[in-house]
Write the structure tokens for this entry.
Amino acid sequence: MKRVKLVVAYDGTNYCGWQKQPNGITIEEELNKALTDLLKTPTEVIGASRTDAGVHSLGNVAIFDTDARMPAEKFSYALNQRLPEDIRVQDSCEVDPEFHPRYSDSEKTYQYKILNTKFQQPLRRKDTFFYYQNLDVEKMQKASGYFVGEHDFKSFCAVNAQVKSTVRTIYSCYVEKVGDIITITITGSGFLYNMVRIIAGTLIKVGSGEIEPEQITDILYAKDREAAGPTAPACGLTMLGIEYYDDWEIRSE
């Protein structure tokens, strides 16, 4: 029996998130179907991040166990022949049997993209959030620095989330604008439910002048979801990838 790691990219527009559920098609469900078809036995993946409906990914991570003789690096090719065109495995490799995508020490990076222009651009409607009012990027950049470090992010967590602790560590958070696209890039040890989208919604409020950058400290201190900005739409969010601190890959001789 071997454990295979998959790096999965997807356009989340047509899916009800990562996790399998009864009310719609999910990324996890499609991967399970493709694996079961390939291996001719029921097979299920375990994913690193349960992205929400409409959220995209360039590098979510999943694992599965199999006794198939197929080399681990070949699974990416075989699965891509069976998956919908909006889901693609970018890499597959064998990892240590103890490796777990959620519980192994890692850092995750997300990007939130805002199309900040007078009119919507049809070709960007699926991967950006359209916001027509002019945003002050310098203020947004200043505000983003207050998120860096270890904080209690209860103000930036969905009220129905069930977690043991709302304390998280953010390693970097910055905002930049290229052309009409404002990009918020944030890297951390882990994220609460809707945390990145609430941070994005709050930074948009800063950019529009409704919140001053210095108020981020007060919002964090409040530990109250109502103190922060709205949850920005899912379409603008993409998980860029996950970097694991330990090298779990098993290299062939």
